[in-house]
Structure formats: structure tokens, C-alpha cells
Design goal:
By secondary structure, the chain is an alpha/beta fold. It folds into three domains: 83 residues, no CATH class; 317 residues, P-loop containing nucleotide triphosphate hydrolases (Rossmann fold); 234 residues, Dynamin, middle domain (Four Helix Bundle (Hemerythrin (Met), subunit A), Up-down Bundle), CATH 1.20.120. It has 25 helices and nine strands. It has a nine-stranded mixed sheet, with helices on both faces. Helix 17 runs antiparallel to helix 23. Its main location: cytoplasm. Belongs to the TRAFAC class dynamin-like GTPase superfamily. Dynamin/Fzo/YdjA family.
Length: 714
């Protein structure tokens, strides 16, 4: 043995080992001196810190036999343990400073946004930890956090637990804080964490075995933890136990899918080595929401329970050859239940884990690849989280800005809170009414501001007027068809001593009056349609401007309804007067002569029209029928021109402009009764809640944008 130690080959090998044990991840270790183990937390992150990576770890001498590597001399092992505890202080300070400047703010930024409650509005980058019951999930989190978390049979984690780990400079005391709902409690010692989490879960989810989607936040500050934030989710249960709801399994799956389904979430799936990985529910759920494995990391636990002979199958999984994941797999060995009963400390468990992998025939190579032990997992998760944050920041900032603008616009609909003094309240009411009147005025002029897919009031009214024009054209066609029948009736019943060729003016008047009379009710229907549109628009504006003042809103609606009735009566009176005048058959000579000549010219030169007339008048074709048809068309052409414009003008004047002006005047009259100001400004409780909710959202989004600006300036 002494010969081996003193040989040149072995001395060269030990020199290489000594250099290897001073690799960057261990030169920058934060050593837990109280418990006597090494926990590597700091790893340069080129994407965030722009720090060049140190040279790779030297490879072992190929001449070194496997037997020598597997049966290490005690002297070699002692040297390795000593080297693993060495620290390069200068390198640590340099890298730590750059780490604090670049990487730590990334995690702090997202933690700050989550603390603001931004997750109520949009998803944030996160690492969610999922696993089947008894998968070793709690043990992994304990090893990362350095504190004992709740353990036991059944479902122990009953609420999402945000585990915020913040590394403090060496020598500072442990600090803890737990927050849920509106409660925040400071923790003085790590031993208080277990009981604090159980109490929080009883309050949030109830004392029985139910679960809740409300977040519990646990913050741990210590020199002995990595900078990392994880969200621990309830273990996947298949059978309800005790007082748990019968559908507890479905509830848990629904909660997990809601969180791990977000594209901003990295899924950390914990799977024990002693089960078939293809049958684990946690990995199945991760594959459902992330089929390509782009944002899933696998953590294998309990390697000491692997059946002899199946180790190579585990190695294949770790090397991504079974169920490939983009971010790969890692393996850890944490405290078991017996270790806890034997009071094995977390620090000692880390030591044992390192020794286990160093001396394991199959897993030693995995450790050398950086895919084993809790310290390596801590580095991996920190790197992945920071890269993920940096990748999603542009989209996150864009989402926050969009949500801020939409919420601000929505908040404007609810105005500001009601002032307290009488004079301020009167001015406030005046402003409300002025804004409402301004909206009314803009709507009647066709200049109102539109939201979304809204259509202008004037556009809707114009469509009604277009339908009125169609009604007039159809009436003209009916009048032409009625001429032969009217002429025949005259010939059969009323013709006296007139010789053929002389038309009867009374027959002409009867045809015209009947057609005019048939148009009166359709015109009233157009009036009713328009006044309904106007009333709906005015009520919509009242709801928009007075949404949180139910008395003022009711007063405005009552005035709108009263004025609507008056304007409808007035408009109907004017329309019926117009038709009363239209039943007086009269037209200026020059206008009528022009229209008559136009009709006759069309009858002569329009072949299709001539054929139509012959078809219509075939039963009793006569010059009298043709002449009567020409006169009827000529007169109705002029009457149609009048009615096409006159009816819309009456409606626009009475139903749109007068209606709007009278509503505005009536609303201003509310200001004269100062005793009713308080009554009118009585705020609706639901509206106040909505406004407060929107105000809080705007406030937290404003702070979020401020945090993003501060982060960008680093």
C-alpha cells in the first residue's frame, strides 16, 4: 500500500485529484461550519451574470485501474475529505459579489411580484415540486431548505407552499417568516417551521384532511441555504383516508394541473428509484401538460433502496434514455424515516449522501457528471430558475403593461371615490353630470367614443332610415300594380257620359291617397324602432357614468323614460301631420311635368318596362290604363322624395336631438336641489367593491412595472 502511495503515477493522480477538488462549484462553497459539511450553492451563470465559466474538471488518468478507483486507500479518502473542505476566499468573494449583483435580483424580482399578488392577474415564472405520496418529495425540500417540514401518513402538504430560500452572508443568524391570507408570523428558529406550517394549513384548508388552492409562503434566510424559490404542491393521492373528501384525488389533480399547466412553470418531478418510472402519476401529469419535456426536471430519490441488479436501469433513466426530458434527470439520497428516528442531522445526511455516491459502483460516474447530490440539485434549480426568469421577462413585462392599461380603462368607468365635504360633493356631482351630458351630446352627433365592437348610435339609426327607403320603393311598385284594377273599377262602376280616352282625376286621387295611407303605420314603426335605440343608448351611458351611484343612476333613467314618452308623442304627432298633408294631392306644375315626361320617356325607350306594362295591362289594355299608370308613377316619384327625407328629419329632430338636449337640461336641474346631493351620491356597495378591487389591481401592477424598471437598471 505504501508503494502505491509513493509511486510517481499515484502522486500524479493525487495532484490531479487535488486540483479537481478545487473545482469552481466547491471553491465558491458556502460551508456549513457548525455541522461540518459542504453545501455548494454558488455557480456562475453566464446568461445572467455574463461571467465566463471556469475550465472543466480534469479527467482522471486513464491508466488508473478500476480496482484502484473502487478500493481507495484510507490516505486518499482522508485527503479528499480535507480538500473538499478547503475554500478559496478570494474566488468566493469575487464570484459571490457578481452573483449578488446579477443572479440574486432575478429571483428577488419574481418573489416581489408574487408577494404583490401579481399571480391573481397573470402567471409568474416558478418551479413547482410534484410527486406521488411517499416519493421522497419532502425529504428533497428538507435537504434544500435545511429545516424539517411536516411529515406523516396520507396527505401532509394540503396547500401550495411557496418556499423562498434566501442566502445570508456567513455568520448571520437564521431568520424565518410564514405568511398566509392576511397573517404574517416571524419564526425565531428552524424547529418552529413544522408546527407553523401545520397551523397555517389548518387555518387555510381546515383542520380535517381537505386541501386548498390558497398559497402559504415560507421564507427562510440563512447562510446555509441556496438562493431559490420553489412551490411545493400536495402529493398525489389515490385513496381518501380518514376525514378526507372522497374525491380528494381528483381535487389534488385539478389543483396540480392548474399550476403545472402554466407555461411559465418549471415542473420538478420527484420519483423514487424503487418504482417503475413509467407508472408514476406525477410524471404522467407532467407529460400531459408538457408533452415535449421542455420544462420538466426529473429528481430520482431513494437510490439506496434499488434492487441489486437494477442499477443500470436507473443509470439509463439519468442519462435520458428512457423517458427523455429536455432538462434531464438528477439523483439524490436524503434522510429516510429511520434516519430521522436516529436523529441524523441534515448536515450529516448531506455528508452521507456524498460518501454514498462517491463509493457507489454505478452512481459514482453520475456524480462526476454533476447529476447527483443535493448541492448539485440546488445549483441546477437556481440556474434553471434564473434562465427561465430571464427568458420570460419580456413577455411578462408586456403582459403586465397590457393588463395595467385594460384595468385602468375599466377603473375609469367607476370614477373616483366620493368626496366628504358638501362643497366637494356638489362639484363632484356636477362633474359626473357634465361627463354624462357630454356623452349624450357626442352620441347624438355621431361622435361618441367606442369600446370594443360597439357601433355608433347614428349608424344604427341610419340603418332604420335605409329600411324606410326600401318600404317606399316597394310601395311604388305596388302602386303600379294597383292601377289596372282601379281603372277597371272606374270603368265598371263610375264611368258616366265620358267618352273613351278621358281619365278620371278622382280615380287618380284615390290611388295616390291609398298608397300614402298605407305608408303611415310603417313610418310610425320606424319611429318606434329609432326611439328604442336612442333610449337604450342613453340608459347605457347612464349605467356607464353612474354605475356606482344607484340613486343617481335611477334618477337619470327616470328622466330618460319621461322625456322619451314626451318626445315619442311629439314625433308621432308630427309624422301623422306630415301624412295628413301628403293626402292632399298637390305638386308644383314644373316638377310634376318633369317627372311625367321622364316616366313617359322610360315607357317608350325602356323595352323591358314596356313589356312589363303590356304584361300588367294585358286583360284590358287601353290608353286610359297606360296614361293613369304614368301619372301615378310621376306623382309618387315626387311624393317618395319628400317622404324619404321628411320622415327621417322629423325623427332626427324630435327623437335624437330634442331628446338628447332635454335629457341634458333635465339632468342639470338635479343640481338645483342641493338637499338631494348626498342622496344622489349614495354609493352602491358592489360598485365600491369593484372599484376597490380594480384600484388594488392597478396599484400592484404599477408597483410591478416599477420593480421591472428597477431590475432593468441593474
Amino acid at each position: 500500500m505504501d508503494k502505491i502511495n509513493s509511486s510517481p503515477i499515484n502522486q500524479q493522480t493525487m495532484d490531479k485529484k487535488k486540483a479537481a477538488f478545487k473545482q469552481p462549484s466547491e471553491r465558491t462553497n458556502n460551508t456549513l461550519k457548525k455541522e461540518g459539511f459542504v453545501f455548494s450553492f454558488v455557480k456562475p451563470f453566464p446568461e445572467a451574470a455574463k461571467i465566463p465559466l471556469p475550465p472543466e474538471e480534469p479527467e482522471e488518468d486513464p491508466d488508473l485501474s478500476e480496482e484502484l478507483f473502487e478500493s481507495k486507500p484510507n490516505y486518499d479518502q482522508d485527503l479528499e475529505k480535507e480538500f473538499s473542505r478547503e475554500e478559496d476566499t478570494d474566488a468566493e468573494h469575487t464570484l459571490c459579489n457578481k452573483y449578488e449583483e446579477k443572479i440574486r435580483p432575478c429571483i428577488d424580482l419574481v418573489d416581489s411580484l408574487r408577494a404583490l399578488g401579481i399571480e391573481k392577474d397573470l402567471s409568474l415564472p416558478a418551479i413547482a415540486v410534484i410527486g406521488d405520496q411517499s416519493s421522497g418529495k419532502s425529504s428533497v425540500l428538507e435537504a434544500l431548505s435545511g429545516v424539517a417540514l411536516p411529515r406523516g401518513n396520507g396527505i401532509v402538504t394540503r396547500c401550495p407552499l411557496e418556499l423562498k430560500l434566501k442566502r445570508l452572508p456567513e455568520g448571520q443568524a437564521w431568520q424565518g417568516k410564514i405568511s398566509y391570507r392576511n397573517v404574517t408570523l416571524d419564526l425565531q428558529h428552524a424547529s418552529e417551521v413544522d408546527r407553523a406550517i401545520r397551523q397555517a394549513q389548518d387555518i387555510v384548508a381546515g383542520p380535517r384532511g381537505a386541501i386548498s388552492g390558497h398559497l402559504i409562503s415560507l421564507e427562510i434566510r440563512s447562510p446555509d441555504v441556496p438562493d431559490l424559490t420553489l412551490i411545493d404542491l400536495p402529493g398525489i393521492a389515490r385513496v381518501a383516508v380518514g376525514d378526507q373528501p372522497k374525491d380528494i384525488g381528483d381535487q389534488i389533480k385539478s389543483l396540480l394541473k392548474r399550476i403545472i399547466g402554466c407555461k411559465e412553470t418549471i415542473n420538478l418531478v420527484v420519483v423514487p428509484c424503487n418504482v417503475d418510472i413509467a407508472t408514476t402519476e406525477a410524471l404522467k401529469m407532467a407529460q400531459e401538460v408538457d408533452p415535449t419535456g421542455q420544462r420538466t426536471i426529473g429528481i430520482l430519490t431513494k437510490p439506496d433502496l434499488v434492487d441489486r441488479g437494477t442499477e443500470e436501469a436507473i443509470v439509463k433513466i439519468l442519462r435520458n434514455r428512457v423517458i427523455p426530458l429536455k432538462k434531464g434527470y438528477m439523483i439524490v439520497k436524503c434522510r429516510g424515516q429511520q434516519d430521522i428516528h436516529d436523529k441524523l442531522t441534515l448536515a450529516a445526511a448531506i455528508q452521507q449522501e456524498r460518501i454514498f455516491f462517491e463509493n457507489h459502483k454505478h452512481f459514482r460516474a453520475i456524480m462526476e457528471e454533476g447529476k447527483a447530490t443535493i448541492p448539485r440539485v440546488a445549483e441546477k434549480l437556481t440556474d434553471e430558475l434564473v434562465k427561465h426568469i430571464i427568458k420570460t421577462l419580456p413577455a411578462l413585462e408586456s403582459q403586465i403593461r397590457d393588463t395595467f392599461h385594460k384595468t385602468s380603462q375599466e377603473l375609469q368607468k367607476y370614477n373616483r371615490g366620493t368626496p366628504q365635504t358638501e362643497s366637494e360633493r356638489l362639484f363632484f356631482l356636477t362633474d359626473l353630470i357634465k361627463l354624462f351630458n357630454q356623452d349624450i351630446s357626442q352620441s347624438t352627433r355621431g361622435e361618441e367614443q367606442l369600446f370594443g365592437d360597439e357601433v355608433r348610435l347614428f349608424t344604427k339609426v341610419r340603418k332604420e332610415f335605409c329600411s324606410w327607403g326600401v318600404i317606399l320603393l316597394e310601395s311604388d311598385a305596388r302602386a303600379k300594380k294597383a292601377v289596372p284594377g282601379k281603372v277597371c273599377k272606374y270603368e265598371d262602376q263610375y264611368r258616366g257620359r265620358e267618352i273613351p280616352g278621358f281619365s278620371n282625376y278622382r280615380t287618380f286621387e284615390d290611388i295616390i291617397k291609398e298608397q300614402i295611407r298605407e305608408l303611415e303605420e310603417p313610418a310610425i314603426e320606424i319611429l318606434n324602432n329609432v326611439i328604442k335605440l336612442v333610449e337604450e343608448k342613453f340608459i347605457e351611458l347612464a349605467n356607464r357614468n353612474f354605475a356606482n351611484f344607484h340613486n343617481l343612476n335611477r334618477a337619470a333613467k327616470m328622466k330618460i323614460e319621461d322625456i322619451r314618452e314626451k318626445q315619442a308623442v311629439e314625433a308621432e304627432r308630427l309624422i301623422r301631420t306630415q301624412f295628413k298633408m301628403e293626402r292632399i294631392v298637390y305638386c308644383q306644375d314644373d316638377l310634376y311635368t318633369h317627372d311625367l315626361n321622364t316616366v313617359k320617356a322610360q315607357n317608350v325607350f325602356n323595352t323591358s318596362s314596356e313589356k312589363d306594362l303590356k304584361y300588367l295591362f294585358a286583360p284590358k289594355d287601353s290608353s286610359l290604363t297606360v296614361e293613369m299608370a304614368s301619372h301615378t308613377s310621376a306623382y309618387f316619384s315626387e311624393a317618395r322624395k319628400r317622404l324619404t327625407n321628411q320622415i327621417p328629419l322629423i325623427i332626427l329632430s324630435s327623437v335624437l336631438h330634442d331628446f338628447g338636449e332635454n335629457v341634458q337640461t333635465s339632468m342639470l336641474q338635479l343640481l338645483q336641489d342641493k338637499e338631494k346631493v348626498n342622496f344622489l351620491l349614495d354609493e352602491d356597495s358592489e360598485a365600491a367593491k369593484t372599484r376597490n378591487c380594480l384600484s388594488q389591481r392597478v396599484e400592484r401592477l404599477t408597483k410591478a412595472l416599477q420593480y421591472l424598471r428597477e431590475f432593468s437598471s441593474l
